[in-house]
């Protein structure tokens, strides 16, 4: 299983990678209040647009066949 950091290039262009639970609320607020919030949303959508069930199942079957 791939981790978030392995799945997406870093730095990400659709938010931040939180490293501390102590700053989570502040970081969420910063994203929501960001002047580029709409662009961040579009970037997030584009980052996952190919994460469909069909693609997931195809990758899953490929892994099964390799066993």
Radius of gyration: 16 Å
Overall average pLDDT: 92
Distance between the termini: 15 Å
Which H/E pattern describes the elements? HHHH
The portion of residues assigned to helices is: 55-70%
**Assembly form of the protein:** single chain
Major β-sheet, in short? Answer: none
The number of helical elements comes to 4
Tell the overall outline: elongated
Stretches where pLDDT is under 50 for at least 5 consecutive residues are: none
Count of β-strands = 0
Percentage beta strand: under 5%
Structural class: mainly alpha
List keywords for this structure.
single chain; 67 residues; mainly alpha; 4 helices; elongated
Q: What features would you describe in this structure?
A:
The protein is mainly α and 67 residues long. 60% of the residues lie in helices and 0% in strands. The chain is elongated, with a radius of gyration of 16 Å. The model has no long low-confidence stretch (mean pLDDT 92).
């Amino acid at each position: 299983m791939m981790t978030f950091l392995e799945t997406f290039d870093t730095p990400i262009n659709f938010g931040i990678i939180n490293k501390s639970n102590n700053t989570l609320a502040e970081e969420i607020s910063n994203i929501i209040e960001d002047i580029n919030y709409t662009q961040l949303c579009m970037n997030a959508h584009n980052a996952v647009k190919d994460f469909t069930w069909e693609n997931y199942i195809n990758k899953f079957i490929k892994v099964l066949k390799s066993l």
